[in-house]
Write a structure and sequence with these properties.
The structure holds three protein chains of three kinds. By secondary structure, chain A is mostly helical. Chain A is globular, with a radius of gyration of 26 Å. Helices cover 72% and strands 1% of the residues of chain A. Chain A contains 13 helices and two strands, in the order H-E-E-H-H-H-H-H-H-H-H-H-H-H-H. Chain A folds into two domains: 79 residues, no CATH class; 233 residues, MetI-like fold, CATH 1.10.3720.10. Chain B folds into two domains: 170 residues, Orthogonal Bundle (MetI-like fold); 26 residues. Chain B contains eleven helices and no strands. Chain B is globular. The two termini of chain B are 30 Å apart. Chain C is α+β, with helices and mostly antiparallel strands. Chain C has two domains: 164 residues, 3-Layer(aba) Sandwich (Rossmann fold); 123 residues, OB fold (Dihydrolipoamide Acetyltransferase, E2P) (Beta Barrel). In chain C, helix 2 crosses helix 3. Chain C is elongated. Chain C starts with 22 loop residues before the first strand and ends with a strand. The chains are: A mainly alpha, B mainly alpha, C alpha+beta. Chains in contact: A-B, A-C, B-C. Chains A and B meet through helix 1, helix 4, helix 5, helix 6 and helix 8 of A and helix 1, helix 3, helix 4, helix 5 and helix 6 of B.
């Protein structure tokens, strides 16, 4: 496929049989165009619509906003609709302290859970990377396996463990560690546990792949040169695993900020997170313009981490080559 | 390496896996609980599994989910493979940065945003919410995961294989179907499996984009979970886990066997 | 210039002004962005020739091969094969085949499917394919491995499958990219001779890219030495070694000593050279040089004699001290520091088991050589 690609603009085309040229060029364009158009239509354009609707007024109708987005007038009609738009929904978001609190809480919860996930995940990844080479693939499979089982189920499983009459409290009570059942379910603690648990594989996998690539003789060399083990860890192991740390943290942090299932099932009605707020605006209040505005702000909040993530991806790809 | 697998390392791996698996194991155990109280053991029973199969709503949702999963995973595999080819093979074309952005962003994009934006698109173009819209939404999400899986295989693909095929007289199209595709097939298959599982698993995007008559299994489970933990849900989850686990175990055993056979072959080849 | 020995004296179309060139590179330039891989290069290769492109990695030799195969198009200039301009002809329509450095065996196909691949592409009838594949398997002695997959073969066997696959279509030209690079030393030496036999028997034109000078010297009829995308010299192995055209070539192939100096006096047959520190040597005229011009006299270590006393009849004899001695078994290598400071490398064949009066560290010693033992280089 190499030479048929975009190079067909060269002077060489003249000598090629017409059919081959058309065939090869056509096929290679198709390879690009089909996924490109799909993503443009189903991923990019929806964001523009979200943005536009965030500037509309909510109404009791179907769809519940005005002006109605309408492609029947063609593109000019679509743009004419922009005149009726305004920033009322964004003003509304700033006036109600609830939204501001939800954003801040979400970011803090995501950040704290990311650090917790890193603290839990690093020893696991390190232990795996140091395991005998023969059992490493099995360990890797065991980390990936929970990822194949439903996210919803895994979060659900924790309800039975954490609730006041749940398994954890039964265990602690029977061991006489506590006298009163702990209230964990429907608190922020439960959300932390849920996020750490659900996103752990996302942290362990990139960490493992960067730790596994590391040459262990580097540590031996450091020790040989008089560096004590703890200091060797901070001076050699950790810096070399940084790409994995960064990738893992971004993979946990970004989706955690907008997480819905975990705060909804484990956090109860008392906890406040933006994903849940958006969901409630949309499904309970049926206020599509406000939920769109919430989404736009959330996206703006995450744009920097998302771009960092993409850069990390691109770098990793370069290194693989 | 054996010497360096210290007690600390073993402990952290064991504790880590215990943390990962204990909740799932407890869930499975309590699906066989006689008592209706999920957390109090009342003896062994399979009655929840029996009642599960008489729950028509759950059965319908399973069927919807399976169809959405198969269709969306298949289309996503085709589109994702094309996207992976584009990313690795065509390093220079107009809009490449936007393209790679659109491939990688959905991997981390909060599901509520993706779900909301797709719903608004479907409303804007006047597409009725239902089976079709969930499938389209799942294709969009999962094709990006397929693209990443296939791309990582393509990056390590030895391009001289393709050159050799062309050198021996195969046209670019023939080269793709006779050489490139068979060689990257394992990655494409695991891409499909990943896409299928993600589709099977998705609650948030499905809730936004689905409509009447197209309730998926996660949506059904979620609505029941909100009413409280019941052994019946545990049973449903156990079956889902079992299906996935059996699939993954079969795949990895087959893989392992091939690998062992390959190593034996290679040793034999070295000897003579 | 004196004619120099060559192994296959009967085959030398490059000396025949009427011989028709088979492959011609005409002022070929290849640029990758700002980087010039091949720079205005011209080269002629004859039919049935075993031609080697020798150079360090990144010198552009592989790019030349890939342009001939059709994977790259020249930025400027043209490439002719049997008089036909190859521009615009895609690789799958060129009558040349390539053996890849990585072998590029299709991992999902058995040995026989790999060999049959090219024949299937040209639409050969199945019975003929079967016959040809059997023939090829016999040629490379892999009959009992026909059904195996590439990963079930050893390195040497894979190399032979790659070879069989690339000659199965009977190409006009076979291109070999570092064909022996992945083999260990012993296997490499054996395979060199097998490749030469194969080329003779099939009567094909071989163009081989290598960075291993020994490999090129052993196998090739002629060698092109490439540096920074340019041809430094095209000649037979003996000429390249005995009469390098430049300092670069002299250094690149084998070991060499260089005397820098000025032409002091030019007689009928000999030139007297004054070195930087005043030492004088007399060498045979093999280059046109004017008196007073700066030149270099290049001489191979084995052409220098080392003695403990000044040889009576030597034209050129310089005194120094033994700086280093390395006993290598078949020969001994001396490093002599001349009194003007220059270090000379000389090697002596250990023909007898015991050498009388062996020189050792810090001994006074004389190096001597004949006027025709080296070449005068001007660039």
């Amino acid at each position: 496929m190499s030479n048929i690609a975009i190079t067909d603009a060269g002077p060489s085309t003249a000598a090629k049989p017409l059919l081959t040229r058309l065939g090869a060029g056509f096929v290679s364009r198709l390879v690009i165009i089909v996924p490109y158009l799909w993503l443009l239509f189903f991923f990019f354009i929806p964001f523009i619509i979200v943005f536009k609707i965030s500037l509309s007024q909510s109404a009791i109708a179907m769809p519940p906003y005005t002006p109605v987005l309408d492609f029947t007038d063609g593109i000019s009609g679509f743009f004419a609709g922009f005149r009726d738009l305004n920033f009322d929904n964004y003003v509304w978001l700033t006036q109600d302290a609830l939204y501001f609190k939800a954003y801040v809480t979400s970011v803090i919860i995501a950040a704290v859970s990311t650090i917790l996930t890193l603290l839990v995940g690093f020893p696991i990844a390190y232990g795996m990377a140091r395991a005998p080479a023969t059992i490493r693939p099995t360990l890797l499979m065991l980390v990936i396996l929970p990822f194949w089982t439903s996210f919803l189920i895994r979060v659900y499983a924790w309800i039975g463990i954490l609730k006041p009459e749940g398994l954890l409290n039964q265990l602690l009570l029977s061991l006489h560690v506590i006298n009163q059942p702990l209230i964990i379910l429907n608190t922020y603690t439960a959300i932390f546990i849920g996020i750490v648990y659900s996103y752990l594989p996302f942290m362990v996998l990139p960490l493992y792949s960067s730790l596994e690539k590391m040459d262990y003789s580097l540590i031996e060399a450091a020790k040989d040169l008089g560096c004590p083990p703890t200091s060797a860890f901070w001076k050699i192991t950790f810096p070399l695993s940084l790409p994995g740390v960064i990738a893992g943290c971004l993979l946990v942090f970004i989706p955690a900020v907008g997480e819905f299932v975990i705060p909804d099932l484990l956090g109860g009605s008392q906890t406040l997170m933006i994903g849940k707020t958006l969901w409630n605006e949309f499904f309970a209040n049926r206020d599509w313009p406000v939920s769109s505005a919430v989404a736009v702000i959330l996206l703006l909040l995450l744009i920097v981490p998302i771009m960092l993530f993409q850069q990390a991806q691109a770098r990793a790809q370069e290194q693989d080559k | 390496m054996n010497a360096t697998w210290s007690r600390f390392n073993v402990t952290s791996v064991v504790l880590g896996f215990a943390f990962l698996y204990l909740p799932i194991v407890l869930l499975i155990v309590f699906s066989f609980n006689e008592s209706k109280l999920v957390t109090v053991w009342g003896g062994f029973s399979t009655k929840w599994y029996v009642s599960l199969f008489h729950n028509q709503g759950l059965m319908d949702a399973t069927w919807v989910t399976a169809r959405v999963g198969v269709i969306s995973a298949t289309v996503a595999t085709v589109l994702g493979t094309l996207a992976a080819l584009t990313l690795t093979r065509y390093t220079r074309f107009r809009g490449r940065i936007l393209f790679s952005g659109m491939v990688f962003a959905p991997l981390v994009m909060p599901e509520v945003i993706t779900g909301l934006s797709l719903l608004l698109l479907f409303v804007a173009v006047g597409l009725d919410r239902g089976f079709v819209t969930v499938t389209l939404a799942h294709i969009t999400l999962t094709m990006c995961f397929v693209a990443v899986v296939v791309q990582s295989r393509l990056v390590s693909f030895d391009r001289s294989l393709e050159e050799a095929a062309m050198d021996l007289g195969a046209t670019p199209v023939k080269t793709f179907f006779q050489i490139t595709l068979p060689v990257i097939m394992p990655a494409i298959v695991s891409g499909w499996m990943l896409a299928f599982t993600l589709s099977l698993d998705d609650l948030v995007i499905a809730s936004f984009t689905s409509g009447p008559g197209a309730t998926t299994l996660p949506m059904k489970i979620y609505s029941q979970v909100r009413l409280g933990v019941t052994p019946e849900i545990n049973a449903a989850c156990t079956i889902l886990i079992a299906v996935v686990a059996v699939g993954v175990v079969i795949a990895s055993v087959a893989n392992k066997r091939r690998e062992v056979q390959r190593q034996l072959d290679e040793q034999a080849a070295q000897r003579g | 210039m004196k004619s120099l020995g060559s192994i296959r004296r009967d085959f030398a179309p490059w000396n025949d002004p009427n011989a028709k060139p088979y492959i011609q590179f005409e002022n070929v330039t290849k640029k990758f962005g700002d980087f010039t891989a091949v720079n205005n290069l011209s080269l002629t290769i004859f039919e049935r020739e075993f031609f080697a492109l020798l150079g360090a990695s990144g010198c552009g030799k592989s790019t030349l091969l890939r342009m001939l195969a059709g994977f790259e198009e020249p930025t400027a200039g043209r490439i002719l094969l049997d008089g036909q301009d190859l521009r615009g002809i895609p690789p799958y329509r060129r009558p040349v085949n390539m053996m890849f450095q990585s072998y590029a065996l299709f991992p999902h196909m058995s040995v026989e499917k790999n060999i049959a691949f090219g024949l299937k592409q040209e639409g050969m009838p199945a019975p003929d394919i079967e016959k040809r594949v059997a023939e090829m398997l016999k040629l490379v002695k892999l009959e009992q491995f026909a059904k195996r997959k590439p990963h079930q073969l050893s390195g040497g066997q894979r190399q032979r499958v790659a070879l069989a696959r690339s000659v199965a279509k009977r190409p006009k030209v076979l291109l070999l990219d570092e064909p022996l690079g992945a083999l260990d030393k012993k296997l490499r030496e054996e395979t060199q001779f097998e490749l030469m036999d194969l080329q003779q028997n099939l009567g094909l034109t071989f163009v081989v890219v290598t960075h291993d000078q020994e490999e090129a010297m052993t196998m090739a009829d002629r060698i092109a030495i490439i540096d920074k995308g340019e041809v430094m010299q095209v000649a037979t192995p003996a000429e390249v070694y005995e009469a390098p055209s430049s300092r670069f070539v002299a250094h690149f192939v084998g070991n060499v000593n260089m005397f820098e100096g000025k032409v002091a006096e030019r007689a009928a047959n000999t030139t007297r050279i004054t070195g930087a520190t005043g030492a004088q040597i007399v060498v045979e005229n093999n280059t046109d040089t004017a008196a007073g011009s700066n030149i270099v006299f290049a001489i191979r270590p084995e052409k220098i004699k080392v003695t403990s006393k000044k040889p009576a009849d030597a034209v050129n004899a310089l005194e120094g001290e033994v700086y280093d001695v390395a006993y290598l078994g078949d020969m001994t290598v001396y490093h002599i520091r001349l009194d003007d400071g220059q270090i000379i490398r000389a090697s002596a064949l250990n023909a007898a088991r015991v050498t009388e009066d062996p020189l050792t560290w810090n001994d006074r010693a004389w190096v001597s050589f004949r006027p025709d033992a080296g070449v005068v280089l001007t660039r």
